[in-house]
Amino acid sequence: MLETQGGQDSSVPPGLTTKFSRHPAAFMAALPRGAREDQDKMRRGVRLALDWGDARIGVAACDKDGVLAYPVSTVRAGPEEITDLVVAIGEYEPIEVLVGFPRSLSGGEGPAAGKARERAKRLAGVVRVPVRLVDERLTTVTASQRLSQGGKRVKEQRGLIDAASAVAILEQALAFEQSQGIPPGELVSGDSRPGP
């Protein structure tokens, strides 16, 4: 039975006694083999994702285990964008920054992809964490659908869509790394010195 502070949980089959809260390694050992292997493939550390638009930059982060992606903020695009992003990077101390890369549906690179690559290179030139380009196809559609399902009308979505898109970018990247065991996307910079 599952031991709790107040006693035992009768919904757990007899003979299964765990103390996961005191022994996290026991939790990992109790997972089915495939789930343990997937968790072992993930690098530990916070990641930031950016949905870099012409007017706004959506910023999302995840927890150190790469389980939960969440919106952080929206940064105004413009002359101060790199400075503002460096501040966010310094605050979250990520192991990498993932920049959404807008490939066409056929997988090709158009003018928007060239702009994203140039922006990622500019950011990579001033931060001390790896910067990667990751596929962002359909993330804005996914984000808009989620906001609509959450009761947000199209007009209300404008201020939220960029950060929500960054969450979708990050979720896709985390799923890729968990399933493949390798970092997602294309490395723009490989500098892994600590600090923003």
What is this structure, in a nutshell?
This protein is an alpha/beta fold. The chain contains 7 helices and 8 strands. The strands form 2 sheets. Strands 5-4-3-6-7-8 form a 6-stranded mixed β-sheet, with helices on both faces. A two-stranded antiparallel sheet has the order 1-2.
What does this structure look like?
Helix content is 39%, strand content 21%. With 196 residues, it is of the alpha/beta class. The chain has 2 domains: 2-30, no CATH class; 47-189, 2-Layer Sandwich (Nucleotidyltransferase, domain 5), CATH 3.30.420.140. It has a 6-stranded mixed beta sheet, sandwiched between helices. The protein has a two-stranded antiparallel ribbon with strand order 1-2. The radius of gyration is 20 Å and the shape is globular. The model is unreliable at 1-24 and 191-196 (pLDDT under 50).
Give the integer mean of the pLDDT values: 75
Distance from first to last alpha carbon: 47 Å
Order of helices and strands, N to C? EEHHEEEHEHEHHHE
Low-confidence stretches: 1-24, 191-196
Please tally the helical runs, counting DSSP H or I stretches of 4 or more residues. 7
By CATH reckoning, the class of the largest domain would read Alpha Beta
Rg from Cα: 20 Å
- Provide the CATH topology of the largest domain: Nucleotidyltransferase, domain 5
Shape: globular
**Widest beta sheet: strand line-up:** 5-4-3-6-7-8
